[in-house]
Design goal:
Blueprint (H helix, E strand, L loop, with lengths): L8 H9 L3 H7 L7 E5 L3 H12 L3 E5 L11 E2 L8 E2 L5 E2 L3 H9 L5 E4 L3 E6 L13 H6 L4 E5 L3 H6 L5 H16 L5 H4 L2 H9 L1 H16 L8 H7 L6 E4 L3 H14 L3 E3 L4 E6 L7 E5 L8 E4 L1 E4 L3 H7 L6 H8 L3 E11 L9 E4 L8 E4 L13 E9 L5 H4 L6 E14 L5 H4 L10 E3 L12 H23 L1
Parallel strand pairs: 1-2, 1-14, 2-10, 7-16, 14-20
Antiparallel strand pairs: 3-4, 5-9, 6-9, 7-8, 11-12, 12-13, 15-18, 15-19, 16-17, 17-18
Bound molecules: flavin-adenine dinucleotide.
Amino acid sequence: MTNVRIGHLNFDIYLIFGIGYWDFLFILGIIRNMKVAILGAGFAGLTAANELIKQGHEVHIFEKSEQSGGAAGGFKRPGWDWYVDYAYHHWFTSDHAILNLCKEIGFTKNMVLHPITATAYPIDAETINQDTNTEQLFEEFIGTNVRSYKLDSPIDLLKFDRISPVDRLRTGIMLALLKFGPALDTYHTTAAYTFLKQWMGTRSWEVLWEPLFKHKFDKYQKDINTMFFWARTKRTAALAYPEGGYQELANHFSGLLQQHGVKFHYKSEILELRKSSDTKPRFILKGSELLRFGTSMTFDAVVSTLPSPVLLKIEKDVLPEMYHKQLTKIQYLGAQTVIYETKKPVLPHTYWLSIALPQSPWMVAVQHTNFVHPRYFNNHHILYMATYTNKPLSENIWKKECPDILWQRSVFIPYAQPLYTTEYYKYMPQTTTPVPGLYIANMERTYPYDRGTNHAVRVGKQAAEAVEKNSAEERT
Ligand SMILES: Cc1cc2nc3c(=O)[nH]c(=O)nc-3n(C[C@H](O)[C@H](O)[C@H](O)COP(=O)(O)OP(=O)(O)OC[C@H]3O[C@@H](n4cnc5c(N)ncnc54)[C@H](O)[C@@H]3O)c2cc1C
Protein backbone atom coordinates (compact mmCIF):
# COMPACT_ATOMS: atom_id res chain seq x y z
CA MET A 1 0.00 0.00 0.00
CA THR A 2 2.69 2.47 -0.78
CA ASN A 3 1.52 4.02 -4.00
CA VAL A 4 -2.17 4.38 -4.48
CA ARG A 5 -2.36 7.30 -6.81
CA ILE A 6 -5.21 6.17 -9.01
CA GLY A 7 -7.95 8.73 -9.03
CA HIS A 8 -9.29 9.13 -5.53
CA LEU A 9 -8.83 5.57 -4.33
CA ASN A 10 -6.79 6.75 -1.37
CA PHE A 11 -9.92 8.29 0.08
CA ASP A 12 -11.77 5.00 0.02
CA ILE A 13 -8.96 3.62 2.15
CA TYR A 14 -9.49 6.62 4.42
CA LEU A 15 -12.93 5.27 5.23
CA ILE A 16 -11.63 1.77 5.87
CA PHE A 17 -8.91 2.80 8.31
CA GLY A 18 -10.76 5.66 9.96
CA ILE A 19 -7.72 7.90 9.54
CA GLY A 20 -6.51 9.48 6.29
CA TYR A 21 -4.38 7.21 4.12
CA TRP A 22 -2.00 10.09 3.64
CA ASP A 23 -2.13 10.92 7.35
CA PHE A 24 -1.17 7.31 7.94
CA LEU A 25 1.92 7.66 5.75
CA PHE A 26 2.61 11.00 7.39
CA ILE A 27 2.55 9.46 10.86
CA LEU A 28 4.98 6.82 9.60
CA GLY A 29 7.18 9.65 8.33
CA ILE A 30 6.92 8.40 4.74
CA ILE A 31 5.58 11.68 3.39
CA ARG A 32 5.55 15.19 4.67
CA ASN A 33 2.19 16.93 4.50
CA MET A 34 2.52 20.51 3.32
CA LYS A 35 -0.07 23.18 3.80
CA VAL A 36 -0.66 24.67 0.35
CA ALA A 37 -2.73 27.74 -0.57
CA ILE A 38 -4.15 28.01 -4.06
CA LEU A 39 -5.19 31.49 -5.13
CA GLY A 40 -8.20 31.28 -7.45
CA ALA A 41 -10.84 28.59 -8.03
CA GLY A 42 -10.79 28.60 -11.84
CA PHE A 43 -9.91 25.40 -13.71
CA ALA A 44 -6.17 25.87 -13.07
CA GLY A 45 -6.72 26.18 -9.32
CA LEU A 46 -9.16 23.27 -9.16
CA THR A 47 -6.79 21.03 -11.12
CA ALA A 48 -3.81 21.93 -8.95
CA ALA A 49 -5.95 21.16 -5.88
CA ASN A 50 -6.98 17.80 -7.34
CA GLU A 51 -3.35 16.76 -7.80
CA LEU A 52 -2.12 18.13 -4.48
CA ILE A 53 -4.81 16.48 -2.41
CA LYS A 54 -3.92 13.17 -4.07
CA GLN A 55 -0.35 13.76 -2.95
CA GLY A 56 -1.52 14.13 0.64
CA HIS A 57 -1.09 17.84 1.17
CA GLU A 58 -3.46 20.07 3.08
CA VAL A 59 -5.03 22.22 0.38
CA HIS A 60 -6.89 25.52 0.78
CA ILE A 61 -8.40 27.41 -2.18
CA PHE A 62 -9.07 31.13 -1.81
CA GLU A 63 -11.56 32.55 -4.28
CA LYS A 64 -12.73 36.13 -4.56
CA SER A 65 -16.19 35.29 -5.91
CA GLU A 66 -18.88 33.09 -4.42
CA GLN A 67 -18.37 30.16 -6.82
CA SER A 68 -15.72 28.13 -8.60
CA GLY A 69 -15.15 28.18 -12.38
CA GLY A 70 -13.36 31.55 -12.70
CA ALA A 71 -13.48 33.03 -16.20
CA ALA A 72 -15.36 29.92 -17.37
CA GLY A 73 -18.06 30.31 -14.71
CA GLY A 74 -21.71 30.92 -15.45
CA PHE A 75 -25.15 31.66 -14.05
CA LYS A 76 -28.77 30.55 -14.37
CA ARG A 77 -31.97 32.57 -14.78
CA PRO A 78 -35.38 31.41 -13.68
CA GLY A 79 -36.66 28.85 -16.19
CA TRP A 80 -33.22 27.82 -17.44
CA ASP A 81 -32.12 24.23 -16.88
CA TRP A 82 -28.55 24.82 -17.97
CA TYR A 83 -26.07 27.51 -16.95
CA VAL A 84 -25.06 30.19 -19.43
CA ASP A 85 -21.34 30.98 -19.34
CA TYR A 86 -20.40 34.56 -18.53
CA ALA A 87 -18.38 34.47 -21.74
CA TYR A 88 -19.05 32.03 -24.65
CA HIS A 89 -17.10 28.80 -24.19
CA HIS A 90 -16.53 25.53 -26.06
CA TRP A 91 -13.77 22.94 -26.36
CA PHE A 92 -12.04 21.64 -29.43
CA THR A 93 -12.07 17.87 -29.68
CA SER A 94 -8.26 18.04 -29.47
CA ASP A 95 -8.52 19.48 -25.91
CA HIS A 96 -7.38 16.20 -24.39
CA ALA A 97 -6.22 17.54 -21.01
CA ILE A 98 -9.67 18.70 -19.94
CA LEU A 99 -11.59 15.92 -21.69
CA ASN A 100 -9.46 13.37 -19.84
CA LEU A 101 -9.94 15.26 -16.58
CA CYS A 102 -13.71 15.07 -17.13
CA LYS A 103 -13.40 11.28 -17.41
CA GLU A 104 -11.23 11.11 -14.29
CA ILE A 105 -13.74 13.02 -12.19
CA GLY A 106 -16.75 11.16 -13.57
CA PHE A 107 -18.20 14.03 -15.61
CA THR A 108 -18.94 12.14 -18.80
CA LYS A 109 -21.76 14.32 -20.08
CA ASN A 110 -20.03 16.19 -22.89
CA MET A 111 -21.70 16.82 -26.23
CA VAL A 112 -19.77 17.06 -29.51
CA LEU A 113 -21.10 18.94 -32.53
CA HIS A 114 -19.84 20.66 -35.65
CA PRO A 115 -21.66 24.00 -35.59
CA ILE A 116 -21.39 26.54 -38.43
CA THR A 117 -18.85 29.32 -38.22
CA ALA A 118 -18.87 32.28 -40.60
CA THR A 119 -17.63 35.85 -41.02
CA ALA A 120 -19.78 38.92 -41.66
CA TYR A 121 -18.52 41.40 -44.28
CA PRO A 122 -19.99 44.68 -45.50
CA ILE A 123 -21.44 44.80 -49.02
CA ASP A 124 -22.55 47.61 -51.31
CA ALA A 125 -26.31 48.12 -51.40
CA GLU A 126 -26.35 47.10 -55.12
CA THR A 127 -24.80 43.71 -54.49
CA ILE A 128 -27.53 42.49 -52.15
CA ASN A 129 -28.42 38.91 -53.09
CA GLN A 130 -29.82 35.77 -51.51
CA ASP A 131 -26.81 35.46 -49.14
CA THR A 132 -27.40 38.89 -47.67
CA ASN A 133 -28.89 38.84 -44.21
CA THR A 134 -32.03 40.92 -44.08
CA GLU A 135 -33.74 39.53 -40.96
CA GLN A 136 -34.78 42.35 -38.67
CA LEU A 137 -33.10 40.97 -35.56
CA PHE A 138 -29.89 40.28 -37.48
CA GLU A 139 -29.85 43.87 -38.70
CA GLU A 140 -30.49 45.15 -35.18
CA PHE A 141 -27.44 43.34 -33.78
CA ILE A 142 -25.01 42.97 -36.67
CA GLY A 143 -25.91 45.72 -39.15
CA THR A 144 -27.44 46.30 -42.56
CA ASN A 145 -25.90 45.46 -45.94
CA VAL A 146 -24.01 42.54 -44.48
CA ARG A 147 -23.16 39.23 -46.08
CA SER A 148 -22.08 36.20 -44.04
CA TYR A 149 -19.44 33.95 -45.57
CA LYS A 150 -19.17 30.44 -44.23
CA LEU A 151 -15.45 29.92 -43.56
CA ASP A 152 -15.33 26.48 -42.01
CA SER A 153 -13.25 24.41 -44.39
CA PRO A 154 -10.64 24.54 -47.18
CA ILE A 155 -13.51 24.39 -49.73
CA ASP A 156 -15.12 27.47 -48.14
CA LEU A 157 -11.78 29.28 -48.41
CA LEU A 158 -11.41 28.35 -52.08
CA LYS A 159 -14.89 29.79 -52.73
CA PHE A 160 -14.21 33.01 -50.77
CA ASP A 161 -14.40 35.63 -53.53
CA ARG A 162 -13.30 38.67 -51.50
CA ILE A 163 -9.66 37.81 -52.22
CA SER A 164 -8.11 36.73 -55.52
CA PRO A 165 -7.80 33.02 -56.46
CA VAL A 166 -4.00 33.31 -56.08
CA ASP A 167 -4.34 34.71 -52.54
CA ARG A 168 -6.87 32.00 -51.64
CA LEU A 169 -4.40 29.37 -52.79
CA ARG A 170 -1.47 30.98 -50.95
CA THR A 171 -3.59 31.31 -47.82
CA GLY A 172 -4.74 27.68 -48.03
CA ILE A 173 -1.20 26.36 -48.51
CA MET A 174 0.18 28.44 -45.63
CA LEU A 175 -2.65 27.38 -43.30
CA ALA A 176 -1.91 23.72 -44.12
CA LEU A 177 1.84 24.21 -43.56
CA LEU A 178 1.22 25.88 -40.21
CA LYS A 179 -1.35 23.28 -39.13
CA PHE A 180 0.82 20.28 -39.91
CA GLY A 181 4.21 21.91 -39.40
CA PRO A 182 6.28 22.35 -36.24
CA ALA A 183 6.65 25.54 -34.22
CA LEU A 184 9.70 27.37 -35.55
CA ASP A 185 11.79 29.49 -33.17
CA THR A 186 11.34 32.53 -35.40
CA TYR A 187 7.59 32.45 -34.74
CA HIS A 188 8.26 33.79 -31.20
CA THR A 189 9.80 37.00 -32.48
CA THR A 190 8.12 37.58 -35.84
CA ALA A 191 4.89 39.58 -35.80
CA ALA A 192 1.95 37.63 -37.22
CA TYR A 193 1.09 40.78 -39.13
CA THR A 194 4.43 40.66 -41.01
CA PHE A 195 4.37 36.89 -41.48
CA LEU A 196 0.80 36.66 -42.75
CA LYS A 197 1.18 39.61 -45.10
CA GLN A 198 4.39 38.19 -46.52
CA TRP A 199 3.23 34.59 -47.01
CA MET A 200 -0.51 34.88 -47.59
CA GLY A 201 -0.56 38.24 -49.37
CA THR A 202 -1.48 41.79 -48.31
CA ARG A 203 -5.10 41.39 -49.38
CA SER A 204 -5.45 38.18 -47.41
CA TRP A 205 -4.14 39.98 -44.29
CA GLU A 206 -6.44 42.95 -44.82
CA VAL A 207 -9.58 40.96 -45.54
CA LEU A 208 -9.23 37.75 -43.54
CA TRP A 209 -7.03 38.49 -40.55
CA GLU A 210 -6.75 42.21 -39.84
CA PRO A 211 -10.41 42.64 -38.76
CA LEU A 212 -10.03 39.77 -36.27
CA PHE A 213 -6.66 40.93 -34.91
CA LYS A 214 -8.06 44.45 -34.57
CA HIS A 215 -10.87 43.36 -32.24
CA LYS A 216 -8.94 40.67 -30.41
CA PHE A 217 -5.86 42.82 -29.74
CA ASP A 218 -6.95 46.41 -30.21
CA LYS A 219 -3.92 48.72 -30.57
CA TYR A 220 -1.53 45.77 -30.05
CA GLN A 221 -2.69 44.00 -33.24
CA LYS A 222 0.63 44.43 -35.06
CA ASP A 223 2.70 43.31 -32.04
CA ILE A 224 1.24 39.81 -31.69
CA ASN A 225 3.65 37.06 -32.66
CA THR A 226 3.33 34.29 -35.24
CA MET A 227 3.42 31.59 -32.55
CA PHE A 228 -0.03 32.68 -31.42
CA PHE A 229 -1.33 32.18 -34.97
CA TRP A 230 0.51 28.86 -35.39
CA ALA A 231 -1.11 27.49 -32.19
CA ARG A 232 -4.58 28.48 -33.39
CA THR A 233 -4.23 26.49 -36.61
CA LYS A 234 -4.14 23.31 -34.47
CA ARG A 235 -7.78 23.73 -33.47
CA THR A 236 -10.47 21.34 -34.69
CA ALA A 237 -13.77 22.24 -36.39
CA ALA A 238 -15.69 19.81 -34.16
CA LEU A 239 -16.53 21.37 -30.80
CA ALA A 240 -17.44 19.92 -27.43
CA TYR A 241 -19.48 21.34 -24.57
CA PRO A 242 -20.18 20.10 -21.02
CA GLU A 243 -23.84 19.27 -20.54
CA GLY A 244 -25.35 21.76 -18.11
CA GLY A 245 -22.68 24.39 -18.93
CA TYR A 246 -19.17 25.04 -17.63
CA GLN A 247 -20.52 26.06 -14.22
CA GLU A 248 -22.14 22.63 -13.90
CA LEU A 249 -18.74 21.04 -14.50
CA ALA A 250 -17.01 23.45 -12.08
CA ASN A 251 -19.63 22.68 -9.40
CA HIS A 252 -19.19 18.95 -9.92
CA PHE A 253 -15.40 19.24 -9.71
CA SER A 254 -15.30 21.52 -6.67
CA GLY A 255 -17.93 19.38 -4.91
CA LEU A 256 -15.76 16.32 -5.41
CA LEU A 257 -12.65 18.14 -4.19
CA GLN A 258 -14.52 19.31 -1.10
CA GLN A 259 -15.53 15.72 -0.35
CA HIS A 260 -11.88 14.75 -0.64
CA GLY A 261 -10.73 17.32 1.87
CA VAL A 262 -9.89 20.47 -0.11
CA LYS A 263 -10.94 23.50 1.92
CA PHE A 264 -12.71 26.15 -0.14
CA HIS A 265 -12.78 29.77 1.02
CA TYR A 266 -15.24 31.61 -1.20
CA LYS A 267 -15.71 35.40 -1.11
CA SER A 268 -12.13 35.47 0.13
CA GLU A 269 -10.23 37.95 -1.97
CA ILE A 270 -6.57 37.77 -1.08
CA LEU A 271 -5.31 41.28 -0.45
CA GLU A 272 -1.81 40.58 0.83
CA LEU A 273 0.80 37.92 0.31
CA ARG A 274 3.83 38.16 2.59
CA LYS A 275 6.74 35.98 3.60
CA SER A 276 6.85 34.95 7.20
CA SER A 277 9.96 35.67 9.21
CA ASP A 278 10.59 31.96 9.86
CA THR A 279 13.75 30.43 8.52
CA LYS A 280 11.64 28.15 6.34
CA PRO A 281 9.91 29.69 3.34
CA ARG A 282 6.40 30.27 4.57
CA PHE A 283 3.74 32.65 3.38
CA ILE A 284 1.16 34.70 5.19
CA LEU A 285 -2.09 35.47 3.43
CA LYS A 286 -4.46 38.24 4.38
CA GLY A 287 -7.75 38.88 2.73
CA SER A 288 -11.29 40.06 2.75
CA GLU A 289 -13.43 38.04 5.14
CA LEU A 290 -10.36 35.73 5.28
CA LEU A 291 -10.48 33.60 6.72
CA ARG A 292 -12.76 31.98 9.08
CA PHE A 293 -9.63 31.08 11.08
CA GLY A 294 -8.64 34.66 11.93
CA THR A 295 -7.27 37.59 10.00
CA SER A 296 -4.40 35.75 8.34
CA MET A 297 -3.21 32.24 7.60
CA THR A 298 0.25 30.75 7.08
CA PHE A 299 1.23 28.28 4.35
CA ASP A 300 4.28 26.27 3.28
CA ALA A 301 3.56 26.87 -0.40
CA VAL A 302 1.37 29.09 -2.57
CA VAL A 303 0.12 28.35 -6.09
CA SER A 304 -1.08 31.56 -7.73
CA THR A 305 -3.52 31.34 -10.64
CA LEU A 306 -4.00 35.12 -10.55
CA PRO A 307 -2.99 37.29 -13.50
CA SER A 308 0.44 38.82 -12.88
CA PRO A 309 -0.94 42.39 -12.53
CA VAL A 310 -3.07 41.13 -9.61
CA LEU A 311 -0.22 39.17 -8.03
CA LEU A 312 1.96 42.28 -8.26
CA LYS A 313 -0.68 44.26 -6.38
CA ILE A 314 -1.02 41.82 -3.50
CA GLU A 315 2.57 40.71 -3.00
CA LYS A 316 4.40 42.67 -0.29
CA ASP A 317 8.17 42.39 -0.69
CA VAL A 318 7.93 38.73 -1.66
CA LEU A 319 9.24 38.97 -5.24
CA PRO A 320 12.84 39.99 -5.97
CA GLU A 321 13.07 43.30 -7.82
CA MET A 322 14.18 41.83 -11.17
CA TYR A 323 11.36 39.30 -11.20
CA HIS A 324 8.85 41.95 -10.21
CA LYS A 325 10.07 44.05 -13.16
CA GLN A 326 9.75 41.07 -15.49
CA LEU A 327 6.13 40.51 -14.53
CA THR A 328 5.22 44.17 -15.00
CA LYS A 329 5.91 43.64 -18.73
CA ILE A 330 2.95 41.24 -19.02
CA GLN A 331 -0.02 43.00 -20.57
CA TYR A 332 -3.66 42.02 -20.80
CA LEU A 333 -6.86 43.06 -22.49
CA GLY A 334 -10.25 42.67 -20.85
CA ALA A 335 -13.24 40.96 -22.46
CA GLN A 336 -16.60 42.61 -22.86
CA THR A 337 -19.51 40.28 -23.49
CA VAL A 338 -23.22 41.02 -23.51
CA ILE A 339 -25.67 38.18 -23.14
CA TYR A 340 -29.10 38.56 -24.75
CA GLU A 341 -32.06 36.25 -24.23
CA THR A 342 -34.38 36.62 -27.23
CA LYS A 343 -37.63 35.14 -28.52
CA LYS A 344 -36.13 34.28 -31.93
CA PRO A 345 -32.54 33.47 -32.98
CA VAL A 346 -30.54 36.48 -34.15
CA LEU A 347 -28.31 34.32 -36.39
CA PRO A 348 -30.55 31.89 -38.25
CA HIS A 349 -28.07 28.95 -38.54
CA THR A 350 -24.61 30.14 -37.62
CA TYR A 351 -23.08 29.49 -34.18
CA TRP A 352 -20.00 31.70 -34.48
CA LEU A 353 -20.07 34.85 -36.60
CA SER A 354 -16.81 36.81 -36.70
CA ILE A 355 -17.55 40.42 -37.48
CA ALA A 356 -15.35 42.05 -40.11
CA LEU A 357 -17.36 45.26 -40.32
CA PRO A 358 -15.13 48.32 -39.92
CA GLN A 359 -17.63 50.38 -37.90
CA SER A 360 -18.78 47.61 -35.57
CA PRO A 361 -17.66 47.69 -31.90
CA TRP A 362 -17.98 43.87 -31.82
CA MET A 363 -15.53 41.11 -32.70
CA VAL A 364 -17.99 38.27 -32.70
CA ALA A 365 -21.63 37.28 -32.32
CA VAL A 366 -22.13 33.81 -30.81
CA GLN A 367 -25.57 32.25 -31.08
CA HIS A 368 -25.18 29.83 -28.20
CA THR A 369 -28.52 28.17 -28.95
CA ASN A 370 -27.33 27.15 -32.43
CA PHE A 371 -24.92 24.89 -30.52
CA VAL A 372 -26.78 24.07 -27.29
CA HIS A 373 -30.51 23.41 -27.72
CA PRO A 374 -32.87 26.28 -26.73
CA ARG A 375 -35.02 23.81 -24.72
CA TYR A 376 -32.49 24.23 -21.88
CA PHE A 377 -33.29 27.94 -21.76
CA ASN A 378 -37.07 27.94 -21.65
CA ASN A 379 -37.10 27.62 -25.48
CA HIS A 380 -35.57 31.06 -25.70
CA HIS A 381 -32.42 31.92 -27.64
CA ILE A 382 -29.11 33.03 -26.17
CA LEU A 383 -26.78 35.36 -28.03
CA TYR A 384 -23.37 36.69 -26.94
CA MET A 385 -21.97 39.84 -28.49
CA ALA A 386 -18.32 40.24 -27.56
CA THR A 387 -15.08 42.08 -28.03
CA TYR A 388 -11.76 42.66 -26.24
CA THR A 389 -11.03 46.05 -24.71
CA ASN A 390 -9.43 47.61 -21.65
CA LYS A 391 -12.59 49.26 -20.41
CA PRO A 392 -16.23 48.19 -20.41
CA LEU A 393 -18.33 49.37 -23.37
CA SER A 394 -20.83 52.05 -22.45
CA GLU A 395 -24.46 51.07 -22.02
CA ASN A 396 -25.61 53.06 -25.06
CA ILE A 397 -23.57 50.71 -27.26
CA TRP A 398 -24.96 47.43 -25.96
CA LYS A 399 -28.34 48.15 -24.40
CA LYS A 400 -31.15 47.39 -26.84
CA GLU A 401 -34.86 48.19 -26.85
CA CYS A 402 -36.63 45.63 -28.96
CA PRO A 403 -39.76 43.54 -28.28
CA ASP A 404 -37.93 40.32 -29.24
CA ILE A 405 -35.29 40.89 -26.53
CA LEU A 406 -36.46 39.43 -23.25
CA TRP A 407 -33.41 40.13 -21.12
CA GLN A 408 -29.81 41.40 -21.44
CA ARG A 409 -26.74 41.51 -19.25
CA SER A 410 -23.28 42.99 -19.69
CA VAL A 411 -20.22 41.15 -18.31
CA PHE A 412 -16.72 42.61 -18.23
CA ILE A 413 -13.74 40.36 -17.42
CA PRO A 414 -10.75 42.64 -16.73
CA TYR A 415 -7.87 40.16 -17.25
CA ALA A 416 -9.13 38.05 -20.12
CA GLN A 417 -6.39 37.95 -22.72
CA PRO A 418 -2.64 38.04 -22.10
CA LEU A 419 -0.91 39.63 -25.08
CA TYR A 420 1.55 37.31 -26.81
CA THR A 421 3.76 39.97 -28.33
CA THR A 422 7.07 39.44 -30.11
CA GLU A 423 8.80 39.97 -26.74
CA TYR A 424 6.48 37.73 -24.75
CA TYR A 425 8.81 34.71 -24.59
CA LYS A 426 11.27 36.86 -22.58
CA TYR A 427 8.77 37.71 -19.85
CA MET A 428 6.48 34.70 -19.61
CA PRO A 429 6.56 33.40 -16.03
CA GLN A 430 7.64 29.81 -15.44
CA THR A 431 5.88 27.48 -13.00
CA THR A 432 8.58 27.96 -10.39
CA THR A 433 9.54 31.47 -9.34
CA PRO A 434 12.74 32.79 -7.73
CA VAL A 435 10.86 32.56 -4.43
CA PRO A 436 11.00 29.01 -3.03
CA GLY A 437 7.49 27.78 -2.34
CA LEU A 438 5.72 30.21 -4.70
CA TYR A 439 4.38 28.76 -7.96
CA ILE A 440 2.54 30.26 -10.93
CA ALA A 441 -0.28 28.51 -12.80
CA ASN A 442 -2.08 31.35 -14.56
CA MET A 443 -3.28 32.13 -18.09
CA GLU A 444 0.12 33.52 -19.02
CA ARG A 445 1.59 30.02 -18.74
CA THR A 446 -0.50 28.50 -21.54
CA TYR A 447 1.73 30.08 -24.21
CA PRO A 448 2.04 29.44 -27.11
CA TYR A 449 -1.57 28.26 -26.91
CA ASP A 450 -4.19 30.88 -26.30
CA ARG A 451 -5.63 30.70 -22.79
CA GLY A 452 -8.43 28.15 -22.39
CA THR A 453 -9.75 25.71 -19.84
CA ASN A 454 -7.83 22.85 -21.48
CA HIS A 455 -4.54 24.64 -20.95
CA ALA A 456 -5.60 25.78 -17.47
CA VAL A 457 -5.76 22.07 -16.59
CA ARG A 458 -2.29 21.57 -18.06
CA VAL A 459 -0.69 24.43 -16.10
CA GLY A 460 -2.54 23.48 -12.89
CA LYS A 461 -0.99 20.02 -13.13
CA GLN A 462 2.46 21.44 -13.83
CA ALA A 463 2.26 23.56 -10.67
CA ALA A 464 1.18 20.59 -8.53
CA GLU A 465 4.06 18.52 -9.95
CA ALA A 466 6.52 21.29 -9.06
CA VAL A 467 5.17 21.55 -5.50
CA GLU A 468 5.45 17.79 -5.08
CA LYS A 469 8.95 17.68 -6.58
CA ASN A 470 10.19 20.35 -4.18
CA SER A 471 8.49 18.74 -1.24
CA ALA A 472 10.08 15.38 -2.17
CA GLU A 473 13.51 17.07 -2.41
CA GLU A 474 13.00 18.55 1.06
CA ARG A 475 12.22 15.11 2.42
CA THR A 476 15.44 13.54 1.10
C1 LIG B 1 -14.31 35.92 -23.74
C2 LIG B 1 -13.65 34.63 -23.37
C3 LIG B 1 -13.90 33.49 -24.12
C4 LIG B 1 -13.29 32.28 -23.79
N1 LIG B 1 -13.57 31.17 -24.53
C5 LIG B 1 -13.07 29.98 -24.16
C6 LIG B 1 -13.45 28.80 -24.81
O1 LIG B 1 -14.23 28.82 -25.77
N2 LIG B 1 -12.93 27.62 -24.38
C7 LIG B 1 -12.07 27.55 -23.32
O2 LIG B 1 -11.67 26.46 -22.92
N3 LIG B 1 -11.66 28.67 -22.70
C8 LIG B 1 -12.13 29.87 -23.08
N4 LIG B 1 -11.76 31.01 -22.43
C9 LIG B 1 -10.64 30.97 -21.49
C10 LIG B 1 -10.96 30.35 -20.18
O3 LIG B 1 -12.11 30.91 -19.57
C11 LIG B 1 -9.78 30.59 -19.27
O4 LIG B 1 -8.58 30.32 -19.94
C12 LIG B 1 -9.80 29.73 -18.06
O5 LIG B 1 -11.07 29.76 -17.47
C13 LIG B 1 -8.73 30.23 -17.11
O6 LIG B 1 -8.74 29.49 -15.94
P1 LIG B 1 -7.73 29.88 -14.80
O7 LIG B 1 -8.03 29.02 -13.66
O8 LIG B 1 -6.36 29.92 -15.36
O9 LIG B 1 -8.05 31.41 -14.45
P2 LIG B 1 -9.43 32.06 -13.94
O10 LIG B 1 -10.58 31.27 -14.41
O11 LIG B 1 -9.36 33.50 -14.31
O12 LIG B 1 -9.30 31.89 -12.37
C14 LIG B 1 -8.69 32.82 -11.54
C15 LIG B 1 -9.60 32.98 -10.33
O13 LIG B 1 -8.95 33.83 -9.39
C16 LIG B 1 -9.95 34.60 -8.72
N5 LIG B 1 -9.28 35.77 -8.15
C17 LIG B 1 -8.82 36.87 -8.78
N6 LIG B 1 -8.21 37.70 -7.89
C18 LIG B 1 -8.28 37.08 -6.69
C19 LIG B 1 -7.80 37.41 -5.39
N7 LIG B 1 -7.10 38.55 -5.14
N8 LIG B 1 -8.05 36.55 -4.38
C20 LIG B 1 -8.72 35.39 -4.60
N9 LIG B 1 -9.19 35.02 -5.81
C21 LIG B 1 -8.96 35.86 -6.85
C22 LIG B 1 -10.93 34.93 -9.84
O14 LIG B 1 -12.19 35.27 -9.31
C23 LIG B 1 -10.94 33.62 -10.63
O15 LIG B 1 -11.96 32.77 -10.19
C24 LIG B 1 -12.37 32.22 -22.71
C25 LIG B 1 -12.13 33.36 -21.94
C26 LIG B 1 -12.76 34.55 -22.25
C27 LIG B 1 -12.49 35.75 -21.42
